[in-house]
Amino acid sequence: MKTYSIKESEIKRSWFLVDAKDQTLGRLSSKVAQILRGKNKVNYTPHIDMSDHVIVINSDQIKLSGDKVNKKEYWSHSGYPGGGKTKSYKSLIDDNSDSIILNAVKGMLPHNKLSNQLIKHLKIYKNGNHPHKSQTPKLMEI
After folding, report:
1. Residue 52 in contact with residue 135, Cβ under 8 Å?
2. Residue 48 maps to which CATH number?
3. pLDDT at 132 over 90
4. Is residue 90 domain-resident?
5. Is there a contact between 88 and 73 (Cβ–Cβ < 8 Å)?
């Protein structure tokens, strides 16, 4: 019995539109990560970029469960001694709400070279306007 592996020319990519308004961050990001990975397709192959394009709109209206709005912090380091920085969720949602969803989805993708290709298929916008209307994305319910 032979194992069939899909070729790059046989991959069909679709466009999906996700409205993040009043959605929980973790549930939304895990669903988006599955689509970016290509796990929604019947011929899923783990080592090939089979991802569809995902457009997330209304990223500034995403919800968190519990009291995470007040307690959640994002940590980064510059690489230099004493270069650690923390930012609260409240300050990020006002300044750069796109990075919250990007960070959550990126953490749910595999940590290898393939994830750098997959994350390029994710487009995030603060409000309901996006420049991808000509691709006719399908509205996806989460």
Report:
1. no
2. 3.90.1180.10
3. yes
4. yes
5. yes
- Domain tally, the chain: 1
What are the tens digits of pLDDT across the range 33-80?
999 999 999 989 999 999 999 999 999 999 999 999 999 999 999 999
Task: Name the band, by pLDDT with cuts 50, 70 and 90, for residue 131.
Answer: very high
**Cβ proximity of 102 and 124 under 8 Å:** yes
Q: Rounded to an integer, what distance in angstroms lies between the CA atom of residue 20 and that of residue 81?
A: 37
Q: Which domain holds residue 115?
A: 13-139
**What average pLDDT does the structure give for the chain?**
93
In this structure, the dihedral spanned by the alpha carbons of residues 35, 41, 45 and 51, taken in order and rounded to 10 degrees, is -40
Residue 1 lies in a domain: no
Give alpha helix (H) positions in 9-133: 25-37, 68-71, 89-95, 98-108, 113-118
